[in-house]
Structures are given as C-alpha cells and as structure tokens.
Design a protein that fits this description.
Blueprint (H helix, E strand, L loop, with lengths): L1 H20 L8 H5 L11 E4 L5 E6 L3 E6 L5 E7 L16 E4 L5 E10 L5 E9 L4 E4 L7 E5 L5 E6 L2 E6 L4 E4 L9 E3 L4 H6 L6 E3 L5 E8 L5 E6 L6 E6 L9 E8 L5 E3 L8 E8 L5 E8 L4 E8 L5 E8 L11 E2 L5 E6 L6 E6 L4 E4 L7 E8 L4 E6 L8 E6 L6 E2 L6 E6 L5 E7 L6 E6 L4 E6 L2 H9 L6 E6 L5 E7 L10 E7 L16 H10 L3 E6 L8 H5 L7 H15 L4 E11 L1 H12 L6 E5 L10 H8 L6 H5 L13 E7 L8 H12 L5 E5 L11 H16 L3
Parallel strand pairs: 38-39, 38-40, 40-41, 41-42, 42-43
Antiparallel strand pairs: 1-2, 2-3, 3-4, 5-6, 6-7, 7-8, 9-10, 10-11, 11-12, 13-15, 14-15, 15-18, 16-17, 18-19, 20-21, 21-22, 22-23, 24-25, 25-26, 26-27, 28-29, 29-30, 30-31, 32-33, 33-34, 34-35, 36-37, 37-39
Helix pairs in contact: 7-8
C-alpha cells in the first residue's frame, strides 16, 4: 500500500512537471485516440483504375462511387449512390462496402451490409447496377453472398453461398449451382478453409477461364480436420461456435482442383498428384487457351512446383520447381507473358527476394533485379514497353522506393522521392500511380504521379492532423543501431521526451512484434500505437522498438535464421537490447518493461521469463504461449511438426519458463479469438498458478484477436497505461 501511494504521488508530480514544461501543449488522451479518433489520418478510399487507364474511382462519404481523372485528380461523374436505392429502415443510405465492375464497365456489383467471417473473409448483400439503364437488381434474393465475380464477357456472375458455387445468368435472369455438396465444417467449394485464408492470404478459390467457358475451382474436404470450439457469451446459455482448425502436426483438409464446363455443365477433377498431405496455395490461368496453372507445395513448404493443367483432360505438366533449405515464400507475383514461353516470378534463391524472368523452353531464370536488398512488392509488367515496376528496400531496411527497370534488368530508375515509406497503386496500363507516402514523424500524403514519377496532384496531405500533432507536442522518433555481444547489428527506434535530459534516468517501454519477416522498425507513420507511445513519452517514459533476428528487410539469412527454433534468437536479441539500454546513463535499468501483441505477446512473455534480470514488467496481448496450439501452415513453415521437432516447440514455450518470472506480468486475451485461441491464455494462467507466480489477467468476452469493437480498445489501453504506471512508472 505504501509503495503504491508513493508511485501514485510521484506520477502526479511527473504529470505536473510535464504540464509545466509544455504549457501550450494539448493533452494526449486515450479518449481522443480511441473514441474521438482525433489522431486518425485522412485517407483516400481508393477504388479501382478504369480500363482506359485515364480515370479511377473513389468511394466518397461512404455512399457515392465517383469517377476522377488521373491527369488532374478532378471529379468527372458520379456513377452510383446508395441514396434512394440502398437504404436502411430509417431511410439512411447504406455504406458501399465493396464493388466490382464488369469487364466492359457497363455494370457494377455493389456490396452492402457486409459482415466479417474471419480476418479476410466477408459476406454481403450484393446488387447489380446497370449503369446505362440506371437500374438496380439483387444478385440473389434473400441471401448474402461471397466473392461474386463477373465472367470475362460480363454475361454471368459466379459467387459462393453456403460452401457452394453458383452462377447467375444475367441475360436469362436465372441462377443455378455449379456444386451441390458443400456443407459447413465438411466440404468447401470455391473458397478456402480457415488456415488457407489466414496463412496463404487466399479466400477466392475459383477463377473464370479467359474465354468465360470454364470455371476452375478448389474443393476442400475438411471432414477429418479437428474442430476448435469457442463459446459465445451474452445470453442465458452460451452458444458453442465450432470451426475446423488444424493445429501443428494435425490433419489438414484435402484440397483438390476441379474444372466446370459452362456449356455441358459437367465437372472434371484435375490431376494434382497422388499425395494429399500437401498444399495448393495458388491457381491462375495462363495466357495459353485452356491451360490453368497451379502451385503445389509440400507440407514442409520447402519444395514448390508450378504445373500447367489441361482444362479438357485435367492432365498436368511440371513447368517450374524450386527448393529451399528453410521454406519457399508464397506470393502473388506470378505473371505469364504473351506467347506462352515466359513468366515472371519472385524467388529468394540468391539470398534476397528478387524478380526473375523464366524461360519455359530453356528452363532458365534470368534476373530482373539483383543486389543485397529485398524486393518488397512486384507491381507488374508493362509488356508493351518491356518495363517492370517494383518496390524495394535498396537504400535501407527502414525505407523503400518505387523503381522501374527494363525486362532484362537494365536501366533502373527510382520513381519516388523522400526518405520514408511509399505504397503506390497503378492505373491500368501503368500511365499513372497514386502514392501513399509517410514517415515516422509525418502522417500519410496521397498524391497522383505520372509513370516517370512526376507529381500531378496532391490529393490529401493531412494538414489538419499535422496541426494536431504539433498542438499535442509529438516528438520525432529517432532511428539507431547497436551491435550485440554476438556481433549482430540490430536496428531500433527510440522516442524520447521533448525535454529529454541525458542526466536523468527514465523508465523504458520496449515494444516488440519480432515475428518472421515482419518489420516494426521502419520509417512509417504509426497511427494507433504511435499515438499511445507519444502519450507515454509525455508522461516521462522512453519508448523503444528493436527488430530482432528473424524480421524482414535484411535478406534471407537474417530472416530465416530462427528456423526450427522460434523464440530463441528473438528473445536473445530483445534481452540484449534491454541490456544495451540499461547501460545508457539516461535509462533506469530497474524500470524496463516490454509489450507485445500476438507474436509480440509471445516474445514479451518469454523475455520476462528468460530476461528476468533486465525486464521489470511485461504486457502480453493475445499471445501464443505454445506453438503446439497454433495452426499447421504458419507453425510448420518455421518449425516443422511437433512430432519431428519436439524440442523446438517446447524449449521456447513461455509456459515452460514461468517459474523464472519475477517481474509484473499482465496477460490479456479475447475469448472469441479464432486466430490465437483463448486456450493459450488459459494454459499460461494455469502454469503461472502452478508455479506460484503472481500475475494480472484481463479477459475480453466475445472479442477476437484485435480486441477492437465497441469500447474495448479504450478499456485495454487504459488498463495497459495503468499497469505500466504501477509497474515501472513514477
């Protein structure tokens, strides 16, 4: 009681001093952050480039779909509004959640009342808008649909409902099924199961052939996959929600490929090999008539094969393969060229992720990009002019730029300017791009550019937010690097109080994510945590982020060195970072806390245990506490199976190190987390209790991995702020 009183008194004094130091500075409050969204940047709800490459669409006010001109950014026309057409019971216009043009751009698919299924999957009520006739009709009466897609000639729409594929004939206004065996938790047609969606970023499991005569689709038989059960509360008798979730080492769904013929309405199965314990992470039509490509990946994910399959016979032919001592990255970077003899693909075969042109006849890979840097994104090929557009971290892992090069890799030009982070979006034909540019100190600016980088128009510069940042006394983050005792150079970011005194010893909050390929230390705007960090800095904290080994932007060796031992090197590096900070005169080495979410919560938990001599407290939100509880694709990519690598799973499980914890520990989880299950928190709590370790636990009923809806985020950040103040604050 006495200690708590002293800490509270000191905190009041610290806040009073802070107020005196910044008399004209408005207070950063959590209510402004999470309720008022006071620090939310304005953004461009960018739609799609029109086919002519000269115009693009924007959703404005949530309910209008407008056409703008790339050359000037000017408004041209409004082609749809929900006002008067799609309204709720009170007569309020509904929000446009999603939309798609038909290929000829004479019709639109409009999605409203969208609801989430999992992280990337959605269902909605879809309507067809005839632009010329100004008429609206339902895609399918009385139901919600998923993934609707116009056929290439625009006469049909394929979509998924209740695990089956349907086709709507627009000319005859009729609807018929492509599949009929779909059943929840048993058979899925045309979309993907939970683990493919989460880890392969894939939800659409069907593709129209270029001539519109066939539909290739994926079928998941998940009947043998074990179910995970979540309880849904809020009523007298809680309901069970059951879904198929393959945990590491357990059975996956059996995935097969099928081809539906629009004329005969018959379906054949494609040859994907005799092995069923494998993955088919991508399907894509080639430029050759009647040839579908599909990728096959072994369960260890270190052998990728690319096949072509005959749409009439279903027979396959191997056209490319790649092996890796660790794992092969799956991307959407495959692009087939006209003529059927070449394709573009990305690979890490030289130690960095680069773009290659593959000659299918010579079986030869020719580098388009090369050097000691990673290509971050491949934007596509302007085949007419032989130009490849890509984003890369050439200068530094902290920044990126947009580049263009000839197809043979020559004549590389940088198209963006300014240190920071760029996220471009191209027009059809690559005549223009709209760029999002931000730094760690400045919120996003959206601007239109010609293909050579020339600025056309600034669409949004977030001047209002910049003024708010200034008025609230934000301090600029600084970047640094240091070398560990093992000789490893690590990059970091530090935010110090504006009135920083090098002779004063400050408490420190370290933020960590640290998962494979991820980067937290980048020169980019941090919308939410960044504002919270600024609030803590104004209270007298120093906030630090360090990217450990295993993170991205520094090549394959750095990224994949945690293979088979997740948690080992990441924890070593975070502990080394804490020791480095503790050695600085301006850091109070007895008051260093660490906070992380998801993979970061896993590492913060492990750091508090293994680094008990340097960390005084830890916050773990939605943490993995044993990789045995996580899914097959993600976990086995880095760890193989628990049966093959039991020590790798157990040696760095926080559950097995709770007896080492001496600092304050806050454990947070949502009960409806379909990703990192609530089971992780329960098992961690049980282990802590068995070991006699005191800890704090906060449960968010019926909240998922993001703990985002309603007032939950505000509650969580209040909780974490209070915990830090009590544990390492003043």
């Amino acid at each position: 009681m006495k200690t708590s009183f002293i800490k509270s008194a000191l905190m009041i004094i610290a806040l009073a001093v802070a107020s005196a130091a910044f008399p004209n500075t408005e207070e950063i409050t959590l209510e402004k952050l999470w309720l008022e969204r006071h620090f939310m940047p304005e953004s461009i709800t960018l739609g799609r480039s029109m086919q002519d490459g000269l115009h693009y669409t924007l959703i404005t006010e949530g309910k209008h779909l407008d056409v703008h001109r790339y050359e000037t950014g000017e408004f041209v026309e409004r082609i749809f509004t929900t006002e008067g057409y799609l309204e709720d019971e009170e007569g309020e216009a509904l929000t446009i959640d999603t939309y798609t043009f038909c290929p000829a751009e004479k019709m639109l698919l409009i999605g409203v009342n969208q609801e989430s299924i999992y992280r990337r999957s959605r269902r909605a009520e879809y309507y067809i808008w005839n632009i010329e006739a100004q008429q609206l009709s339902a895609l399918s009466e009385g139901t919600t649909q998923r993934l609707p897609d116009f056929s290439p000639e625009g006469s049909h729409i394929a979509f998924v409902r209740r695990n089956n594929i349907y086709v709507k004939d627009l000319e005859g206004d009729t609807e018929y099924p492509v599949t009929t065996d779909g059943e929840y938790n048993h058979i899925i047609n045309g979309t993907t199961d939970w683990v493919y969606e989460e880890e392969f970023y894939l939800t659409k499991g069907f593709e129209w052939s270029p001539d519109g005569r066939k539909i290739a689709f994926m079928r998941f038989d998940e009947s043998h996959v074990k179910e995970f059960v979540m309880m849904k509360y809020g009523q007298l008798y809680p309901e069970e929600y059951r879904f198929k979730y393959p945990k590491a080492g357990e059975e996956n769904a059996v995935v097969t490929l099928h081809m539906y013929d629009m004329e005969s309405r018959e379906t054949i199965e494609l040859d994907t090999g005799d092995e069923t314990d494998q993955y088919i992470p991508r399907i894509k039509w080639t430029k050759e008539p009647g040839l579908l490509s599909f990728q096959r990946l072994n369960r260890h994910q270190n052998h990728l094969e690319l096949f072509s399959a005959d749409a009439e016979t279903g027979q396959k032919e191997l056209i490319y393969e790649e092996t890796n001592p660790y794992y092969v990255r799956i991307t959407d970077d495959l692009t087939f060229l006209e003529g059927g003899k070449h394709f573009i693909i990305t690979s890490e075969k030289d130690g960095y992720l680069h773009i290659y042109l593959y000659d299918m006849e010579a079986r030869e890979m020719m580098p388009v990009t090369k050097g000691n840097f990673d290509v971050q994104d491949f934007y596509g090929l302007d085949e007419e002019n032989g130009l490849v557009y890509y984003l890369a971290r050439k200068e530094s892992p902290l920044t990126n730029h947009l580049y263009v090069a000839n197809l043979d890799g020559s004549n590389v030009r940088q198209l963006t300017q300014g240190k920071g982070t760029h996220s471009p979006s191209f027009s059809e034909g690559f005549r223009f791009f709209i760029n999002r540019y931000a730094t760690a100190s400045s919120p996003p600016v959206y601007s239109i550019h010609e293909s050579d980088g020339t600025l056309v128009e600034v669409l949004e510069d977030n001047t209002t937010l910049k003024d708010r940042i200034s008025n609230h006394g934000f301090t600029d983050p600084e970047f640094f690097s240091f070398t560990t005792s093992e000789g490893v150079s690590l990059n970091g970011q530090i935010i110090r109080p504006d009135d920083f005194d090098p002779d004063h010893a400050y408490p420190v909050l370290m933020y960590v994510y640290g998962g494979p390929g991820h980067q937290a230390v980048v020169d980019n705007w941090n919308t939410f945590n960044g504002v919270w960090f600024q609030k803590l800095v104004q209270q007298g904290y120093i906030v630090v982020t360090v990217d450990n080994r295993g993170t991205g932007g520094r090549g394959e060796q750095f990224r994949k060195m945690t293979y088979l031992q997740l948690g080992k090197y990441e924890t070593i590096d975070q502990i080394e970072a804490a020791k480095y900070l503790a050695a600085q005169d301006y850091v109070d080495g007895d008051r260093i806390a660490i906070f992380g979410w998801s993979y970061g919560g896993y590492l913060s938990s492990l750091c508090l245990a293994k680094g008990a001599d340097v960390f005084s407290a830890a916050i773990a939100v939605a943490p993995v506490t044993s990789w045995r509880y996580y899914d097959t694709i993600y976990t086995e990519r880095y760890m193989r199976t628990p049966q093959e690598n039991p020590d790798g799973y157990d040696d760095n499980s926080p559950i097995n190190h709770v007896d080492k914890i001496v600092g304050d520990y806050l454990l947070v989880h949502g009960t409806a987390d379909d990703n990192v299950h609530y089971q992780n928190a329960i098992e961690m709590a049980d282990a802590l209790i068995e070991a006699g370790v005191d800890f704090e636990l906060m449960i968010y009923p019926d909240h998922d991995h993001g703990i985002f809806t309603g007032p939950a985020r505000l509650h969580l950040y209040r909780l974490m702020t209070d915990f830090l103040n009590r544990s390492v604050g003043y």
